[in-house]
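Chains adopt folds. We examine one example:
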Amino acid sequence: MISNKEVKRTFKVFLNSGNTNSYSGVQYNANYILDLKKIIFDDQAFDKSYYMYCTFRSVGDTVANNGITAYNIYALRIDFGRGQNTYQYNQAKTPSFIVPVQISLETTPYTYFNLTDNLSQPVFIQNIRNLSSVTVNLIDGLLNTTFVGSGIDNNLRYVCVLTFVEV
């Protein structure tokens, strides 16, 4: 059977705070440079709209070592420098996703951030033309400031995978 239906494009952007050469700024307010021309070869694809999903996972450790507490609310701001499709009364740090805290049930309990793309609604991206950088900012939701945790970088490493699905 032959279909005339156009195939929807999907691609991923992998952001790893463990590779400190891949971003500028501080770990939880990091600016990553993007070169989407390395993975997208059709120029028309840059003008199409996409849904962006996010997976965000940090290293697990004790609360004393990483500062990630289960009684706080954390939000992830993914900023392409174009403004957001999200409204918040105080627009200083408009979040894109709420980040759940996972608690292990080991002998020594530990916590970590664990947002999977199936836990969140996607963000609509009008087009990806001239998209050259992305800022990943984890916000302490109660204070509306950048999360700093315990300040020990190795205990706060994360991987953020942005999945773009053509609308």
Notes: The chain has one domain: 10-166.
